[in-house]
Amino acid sequence: MADQILSFDEAMEQFDPVLGFEVHVELNTKTKMFSSAPNAFGDDPNTNVNEVDLGMPGVLPVVNKAAVESSIKIGLALNCEIAESCRFARKNYFYPDTPKNFQTSQYDEPIAHDGWIDIELEDGEVFRVEIERAHMEEDAGKLTHMGGATGRIQGADYSLVDYNRAGVPLVEIVTKPIVGAGRRAPELARAYVSAIREIVKNLGVSDARMERGNVRCDANVSLMPKGADKFGIRSETKNVNSLRSVEHAVRFEIQRHAAVLAAGEKVTQETRHWHEDTRTTTAGRPKSDADDYRYFPEPDLVPLVATREWVESLRAQLPEPPAERRKRLKTAWGYSDPEFRDVVNAGVMDAIEETIAAGATPAAARKWWMGEIVGRAKVADVDPADLGVSPEAIVELNGLVEGGKLNNKMAGQVLDGVIAGEGTPTQVMESRGLVLVSDDGPLLEAIDAALAAQPDVADKIRGGKVQAVGAIVGGVMKATRGQADAGRVRELILEKLGVNA
Amino acid sequence: MAEITRDDVAHLAQLARIEMSAEELDRMAGELAHIVDAVKSVSEVAGPDVPATSHPIALSNVFREDVVGHVLTPEEALSGAPDAEDSRFKVPAILDEE
Asked: pLDDT above 70 covers what percent of chain B?
């Protein structure tokens, strides 16, 4: 049965949304959280496991120091307090992706707590999101549901389990309830997850590839009548794993809750499943006895003490925060707000920074990346940075244009050659025979031919209609296959016809 | 005496995936109450000056360097599995939730 929804505008007239997020970040350590098996993506099933990951009797976990340091760095980047002492806890439940029958996590003593992060929305408005906690835990294995019509769990005949992911270090970041976002709630949801992704990527602690599940989001939504201060009943939409779906899922849940509440009914506290194809959620299980996890301190692990010296040495390693870096670069480059926003949205800020470092002016770097490379990347369906154009190649190409060796059209062809792996711009220019003709001899011949072919146009120009010269320039460019210097051609034509431009 | 109802025991049995008969549930309700009372006596001895502890030895920060070590082959990993397919553990359909 499809859920009723109100339009987003109607929902916003009556209700204020309250959001909350749990974002799981997979760390990119070499080994797992509690075992020395490799932490690697995409390998053959059950090749990155040992006895600890499989929960065999008698095994003992040992904490990965690098994972702890990554977790502390995440906490610091989120302006959290780092706990002087904390513990791991067992979260008990039976599910085949967790062979120990418990997940080793943290419960009442997270490693980081009480932080905040400023989220900049697209128009520049800044929204502060408070962080409740960030705690360490381990990932579960991967289930594949077999049989049945859909490959989904419903109707499956059996399931297959690959434990390569079991034990991969995770940091779960939990926000405090986010109030006051109003109609910008869906946008804020997207911007928040995007910011977390950017931070962990910038820290170098996660590959942060959402399509691989490195960053996964559970989105909590509730509504309260406008002006109320008591939160409504929330739903938790699980595993919304792209930025776009986070925005859509929050919007849908707001509309669905609004319809339930407007009809005078109560929202059910439950988990929801997100469906990208229909952009809707469906009910999962209600919160109930199944959530009785009986946490208790992990007896096989000793407490973790983060000394002040250790924390400060990690703080000293933190890179410049992404938001501050953007501000600095925008000022240094002198781009306008929309210019800079386009650069960021196109994902070429790093590339432009490297190109400027290689010797290009900010304006030239932007021209090549935004004007030429981004479009080609879109056609090839890859990230602009993955197209294989080095900053040095751009500086060289730009120099060839500014030095009068290439016109813009030919430069585009040279760029295609560079992308196709034909060598440096100069090599491509030579091998493709792209030489800008500015030598007057061949140009004059082509001009004579073009004038003879269009005598009426020649007469018009002689009569003072200088703008008609374009037709003759076009003829010359065609005859020289685009390799003529158009400016020089124009001069020569006017000279020939005795017209002062 | 601690209050442990038959429903509490049934709930715990369900969480622990232990099948219990009606008689067992009744008997266990009484026994668990005694056990809880016995454990409770610890809190009478420990005053507010004794901090809660989760480990008998005063150790902290036992770490491992992030270096790849021992790994099983898929054959070894699956050698004790009741059933397997395509190098993966085969488990019955999971019905209750996703």
From this structure: 96
